[in-house]
Amino acid sequence: MLVPIMAGETGKYLKFGGAVALILLSMGYLAYTGVQESKSYYVTIKELRGMGDGAYTKHLRVAGNVQPGSIKRTGTRVEFSLVENDQLLPVVYSGTEAPPDTFKDNSQALADGSFGRDGVFHAKQLQAKCASKYAPQQPGAQATM
């Protein structure tokens, strides 16, 4: 036997369904925008130069070797240049933390940030490693720590 649903109950179900739909749409939108903001593209310096106007709107990661003599420190702000296959990229790091101890001339560095119309890469995060520390040990050489 079917029981007819009263008009008042139908309205309650519609309001509840509308609220659930609104919550699901809001969560979907927040998830989508969060993924878009956290997405970063890894590019070489040469690829960055060839991206055109698209380079100014994306979150990017660029790696290279720190050009000797290019490091200029002012507190946690650091200006330097990355070099990769004769391509030079000026970088300004203005993160909240000082660069790692392994950040030195000729070290490999990964800058995470955005490319500005001024031709400078503006990094918010910086990773570095000393290539000699992580290179395989040469036969006959003693390990240093």
Show the helix and strand layout:
Blueprint: H1 7-38, E1 41-43, H2 45-49, E2 60-66, E3 72-74, E4 77-84, E5 87-93, E6 108-115, E7 121-129, H3 131-134
Parallel strand pairs: 1-2, 5-7
Antiparallel strand pairs: 2-4, 2-6, 3-4, 4-5, 6-7
Summarize the structure in words.
The protein is α+β, with helices and mostly antiparallel strands and 145 residues long. It has 2 domains: 30 residues; 90 residues, Nucleic acid-binding proteins (OB fold (Dihydrolipoamide Acetyltransferase, E2P), Beta Barrel), CATH 2.40.50. Helix content is 28%, strand content 31%. The chain has 3 helices and 7 strands; from the N terminus they run αβαββββββα. Strands 2-4-5-7-6 form a 5-stranded mixed barrel. A hairpin with a 2-residue loop joins β3 and β4. The longest helix is centred in the N-terminal third of the chain and has 32 residues. The protein is elongated, with a radius of gyration of 26 Å. The N and C termini lie far apart (83 Å).
